[in-house]
Design a protein that fits this description.
Length: 206
């Protein structure tokens, strides 16, 4: 009986002994995830990322409504009300067009002008982000002076001229409107000047 008593051990002692035998593994902090740099970005606020953002923004087409006028036509039966919309459309890659259409509602007039402007787009000769040389565009009583500018200057222009420059994709230019400020004539004068631009390659051929 005494031998059997010696063989019986306390269950608490056996549990402590088994716990002491388990090897303790120290937890290591997880390694930080390293982000691979791609060709289009240098860092969060890097120069390459800014250039990539500008390129993506430039690729979007521009459709800008310059002016909406109310037209009243007096007939024998009374007054007939309609609206006209002047719209400029460009792909920001050297092609731009404008149109002036009328309709009974403003939304329909804008839709008609956009569709018509896309069919009348012209190609404009550019030199980087500006125009190749100075030129003056004329239409009716409006005269628009267009001058090339260095990088970082921006678009120094009034509303109608700025809309046309944004549609073409010009980012640096100096402009000045003389005489008439009529938006329709100003847009036509700007388009007249841009359509007559010539690059150095074209001048050499002539």
């Amino acid at each position: 009986m005494e031998e059997q008593k010696e063989q019986i051990k306390d269950p608490a002692d056996t549990a402590e002994a088994s716990i002491n035998k388990i090897p303790v593994v120290e937890e290591q902090p997880p390694e930080p995830v390293r982000r691979k740099k791609t060709g289009g970005e240098e860092n969060r606020f890097g120069k390459k990322a800014k250039i990539a953002f500008e390129k993506s923004a430039d690729s979007e087409p521009v459709e800008e409504v310059i002016s909406i006028n109310r037209i009243t036509k007096v007939t024998k039966g009374g007054k007939k009300l309609s609206f006209s919309a002047l719209v400029v459309v460009g792909d920001t890659k050297g092609r731009v067009g404008y149109s002036l259409e009328k309709a009974a509602e403003v939304s329909i007039a804008i839709r008609k002008s956009i569709a018509s402007a896309k069919k009348q787009m012209i190609n404009v000769s550019l030199s980087g982000s500006t125009i190749p040389h100075e030129i003056i565009g004329r239409c009716g009583g409006a005269t628009v002076l267009l001058k090339p500018a260095a990088d970082g200057t921006g678009v120094i222009a009034a509303g109608p001229v700025r809309a046309v420059c944004d549609g073409v994709g010009i980012r640096n230019i100096l402009t000045k409107c003389h005489r008439s400020n009529n938006p329709i004539n100003v847009v036509k004068a700007t388009m007249d000047g841009l359509s007559r631009l010539k690059t150095s390659h074209n001048l050499k051929k002539e």
